[in-house]
Design a protein that fits this description.
The protein is mainly alpha-helical and 287 residues long. It is built from 9 helices and 4 strands; from the N terminus they run αβαβαααβαβααα. The chain is globular.
């Protein structure tokens, strides 16, 4: 009986700490971000992929016609997807190819190529990429590329599993030669900056449904910005709040979000201390 009671007490104390931690992160974060668990912002993997970056991505159930944001193969499997999509006259792949880096943000200007440095973070694109090594040298570097407003951990530290999907998406956007095929405003006679056109935005690039679903499963319990129904671009426009660090660590590291940065200030420390106290709470319950 006492062993059963001890187990119940441990579970109850753990659940209570989880609830309190989530509440505390939300209370101490920037209120304009409307921070909440991802599962309460997005319904599923489709909703996440088709909302988090506006209309940049679409959820593709046909795995042969969808791109992946990560791979371990020697040859980039997204190249084969582009070849298949070339057969569709309505696809941008029938007009543009991956022999040129079409996006112009922090990307290479010209053809994709091999990086001289060792790409430990975005390693799938070591031999052929549209990104520079120093742009993606670490997860923390990637997280700070576009300023503190666009850090993916503004609502608090992410779990390692969830954070990996953010890093993968960033590597995919910066490095993959195929992503520029879906540039929203192609660099042709139709491009007109006076009409609000830009060289960095992508439009309705099909992503494998399995990848979107996996991203949702990995992040469903992590705290995300809920502004604009979870649109990361709208969230990035929210000014930095006094509760957020205004001077994130940009020295680089193996992981982002866990060692300090825009959202890893006082609120995160309090939550970590709460979790560290969990064993004491359980011990008291079992005595």
């Amino acid at each position: 009986f006492f062993f059963g009671l001890t187990a119940v007490c441990h579970r109850m104390s753990g659940l209570l700490l989880t609830i309190l931690a989530a509440f505390l992160v939300q209370a101490l974060s920037n209120p304009e971000l409307q921070c909440k668990e991802a599962q309460y912002i997005f319904h599923d993997g489709r909703d996440l992929c088709e909302t988090i970056f506006g209309d940049a991505f679409t959820y593709e159930p046909n795995e042969d016609l969808g791109y992946t944001m990560w791979f371990f193969d020697k040859v980039n499997p997204n190249d084969a997807v582009t070849e298949r999509l070339k057969q569709d006259p309505n696809s941008p792949a029938s007009k543009y190819n991956n022999s040129h880096c079409h996006l112009q943000s922090l990307h290479k200007d010209g053809p994709p190529g091999k990086n001289p440095g060792s790409m430990t973070e975005c390693h799938p694109w070591q031999d052929r990429s549209c990104c520079y090594w120093d742009t993606v040298k670490s997860a923390e570097t990637i997280n700070n590329l576009y300023g503190p407003g666009y850090r993916y951990d503004r609502c608090g530290p992410l779990t390692p599993a969830c954070e990996r999907f953010w890093v993968q998406e960033d590597c995919f956007y910066e490095c993959d030669p195929n992503i520029g095929i879906f540039r929203k405003h192609p660099n042709d006679h139709t491009y007109d900056e006076s009409q609000g056109h830009n060289p960095w935005e992508i439009y309705k690039m099909p992503i494998k449904a399995s990848y979107c679903d996996a991203w949702f499963r990995a992040c469903k319990h992590d705290m995300f910005c809920g502004k604009g129904e979870g649109n990361h671009i709208q969230c990035g426009a929210v000014p930095i709040h006094e509760s957020e660090s205004k001077d994130p660590d940009t020295t680089g590291g193996d992981t982002a979000g866990g060692a300090g940065g825009a959202s890893n200030g006082e609120g995160a420390d309090v939550v970590i201390n709460m979790y560290n106290a969990g064993s004491n709470a359980g011990g008291t319950c079992s005595n």
